[in-house]
Fold this protein.
Amino acid sequence: MLTAHSPTLLSQSLGGGTVNGVFRLRYESVDQDNALDDADALTLSSRLSYTTRTVNGFSAMLEAEDVRAVAGIDSYSVGSTGFKPGRYSSVDDPETTEVDQAFLQYNSDIFTAKLGRQVIVYDNHRFIGHVGWRQDRQKFDAVTLTLTPSENLNLTYNFLDERERIFAEDADIDSEDHLFHAVYDTPIGSLTGYAYLLEMQDLPDNSLDTYGLRLSGSREINGFEVSYLLEYADQDSETDIIDYGADYYLV
């Protein structure tokens, strides 16, 4: 029985949480040899977050984001949002106020589950990342399941319900994406295998599948630290809308 003096799970988790703020002032100019006017954009990105304490393995995080033009320096276009279209060159930092992240997480020794809007980054951001150089970074409405059965093995699965892209809410995409990512530490480096199966809900025929392998590591040779990275991926789509294949190499 709970008494008036017994802390509830909610009060335990909310008390003693962590507040964090990130503020970034960014200037970008674009000078193109075309019919559009040159662009100038001075924008401030502000993110404020609160992360609860972990109680019985559960925690939560809420983060708000705001992007504003500063000092009236907003001579730029963001075509995807309809901001001054067709007048200036494009700078993809639209003004917006939205939820950046909001998720509930459970964590045990070998298993983690996360539900809600979240940042997802894999490897060098080449295929899955948050596009962090833009002011409104990319997030995903997703379920993330991570299993670490041993010190050498990490397995992650993501189901993405919506891609919260860098163009504010006007250009977000409903999706049914499945991401598989596995990392195994070997004597010669970390071996990564991945499969990213992407599909938009409104255009189910517009699917895009990427499969890849990546090996990265370092070792000392004659007193020098030598780092190495090898990666190969195959991307293809065979639908009524797109029919192509492409190879990706990184050395």
User: Anything to note?
Assistant: The mean pLDDT is 91. The domain at 9-250 is CATH 2.40.160.10 (Porin). The chain has one helix and twelve strands.
